[in-house]
Amino acid sequence: MSGPLQGVRIVDMTTVLMGPYATQILGDLGADVIKIEPSDGDTVREVGPRRHAGMSGIFLHANRSKRSVVLDLKAPAGREALLRIAADADVLVYNVRPQAMARLNLSYEEVAKVNPRILYVGLYGYGQGGPYAAKSAYDDLIQGAVAIPTLAQLAGSDVPRYAPSAIADRIVGLAAVNAITAGLFHRERSGEGQSIDVPMFETMAQFILGDHMGGLTFEPPIGPSGYTRILNEHRRPYRTRDGYLCVLLYNDKQWRKFLALIGQPDLMDTDPRFCTIVERNKHIHELYRMVAEIMPTRTTAEWTAALEAADMPVMQLHTVDSLMADPHLDAVGFFDVVEHPSEGAIRSMAIPSTWSKSQPRVARQAPRLGEHSAQVLAEAGYSDEQIRALAALGATRLADDAAASH
Fold first, then answer.
1. What is the model's pLDDT at position 406?
2. Domains along the chain with CATH numbers
3. Are 33 and 20 in contact (CB under 8 A)?
4. How many degrees, rounded to 5, is the angle at CA 383 between CA 382 and CA 387?
5. Distance from the CA of 187 to the CA of which of 95, 181, 223, 286 falls in 20 to 30 A?
6. Distances in Å between the alpha carbon of 393 and those of 105, 106, 133, 402?
7. Which of 274, 278, 154 lies closest to 212 in space, CA to CA?
8. CA 138 from chain center: how many Å?
9. What is the pLDDT of residues 266-297, one digit of tens each?
10. Taking the model in full, what pTM does it have?
């Protein structure tokens, strides 16, 4: 293990994406992440392309730097094993509704009895003080609940559309990383463990409304909701003569340079629509439409050369496939082909941050189901005979058992 969280032990009871993404980051940062799975494993093990059952691409990306332990938490012996593991942990993370944890007799109060210093962190749909408290939540539902599809339609989509990425899961996962690391810092100073809730709906509502509350920020309101520039139907990659290009014109300097490139250097001084950022925002639809009409007069390469020469914000439009071959990502070593113990050669993404000291490293590639059951249970004080007995009861599954089932 290496990295800034070396020595931190996390009991990871999460599944699918939101929680596993958060704990993958924490594991990459050096924490010892113990992934607790049911006997049939995390659902996402079977989602998407895979060479072997239970080891899909999405699972491999979201579950590296972890150890896998199978426990049947509905069985008394499985619950007891979980509490014994948690007794020596710094953090327990779950992403089911709190009511489900209570039914397992694994509420904060129950876990804190065996470890009062633990951070008990819940990632779930809705804050428990409102009428949605017991509702189930998934990325698509939360995207809809915070108006992302509606905003897409306001910005020019023919119908309401979800963002083509599990952005709610990943944004809330990042919020959980923030909460956990801050909670660890607080405990370092105070010695206090605590319960922390990270609800999806409220986290994403803050994320969206920060841009789009607009005039409703003020009481009484001084204008409508919505960030006009972001909702402009022409705020999209511009069509050129032979393709598309991503260009941003925002401040005075950028607009002045662009107008000079198209042969109208005096327009900012003669057209009141361009004179200030306030006026440009008032007329952003017509200004962006003007840019959209000009861009097809040159090729992508011609525009790129001209805009880069003028030190203007411009970027190519990638596909997912071309992004995988991006020269910048290649130069910084973003992708690496590693040898997975069971899956062979896989393409792994680097930890994005760089540290002058305590550089994080990927501890291990994603585990097979139950790969570390015996190891972690032994660390919790179980003898070999007791571990075999747990397996015989079905309270755990060992690595060989899990492999045999596939």
1. 43
2. 9-207+354-405 (3.40.50.10540), 238-316 (3.30.1540.10)
3. no
4. 75
5. 95
6. 20, 21, 35, 15
7. 154
8. 14
9. 988 899 888 898 999 888 889 999 999 999 99
10. 0.93
Distance CA 268, CA 274 (A): 5
Residue type, 153: Q
**pLDDT for 25-75, tens place per residue?**
999 999 999 999 999 999 999 999 999 999 999 999 999 999 999 999 999
Q: Could you tell me which residues are beta bridge partners of residue 120?
A: 92, 195
Question: Encoding tokens for residue 226?
Answer: 């919505």
**Where residue 404 falls among pLDDT bands split at 50, 70, 90?**
low
Sign of torsion over alpha carbons 396, 400, 403, 405: negative
The residue to which tokens 């997912």 are assigned:
320
The residues near 85 (Cβ < 8 Å, ≥ 6 apart) are 11, 34, 36, 69, 376, 377, 379, 380
Q: Is 357 exposed, middle or buried (CB count within 10 Å of its CB: 0-12, 13-18, 19+)?
A: exposed
Cα–Cα dist 28/392, whole Å: 34
Q: 214's torsion region: left (phi>0), alpha (psi -120 to 50) or beta?
A: left
Token reading at 251: 């401040």
CA–centroid distance for 371 within its chain: 25
Structure tokens at 27: 């594991």
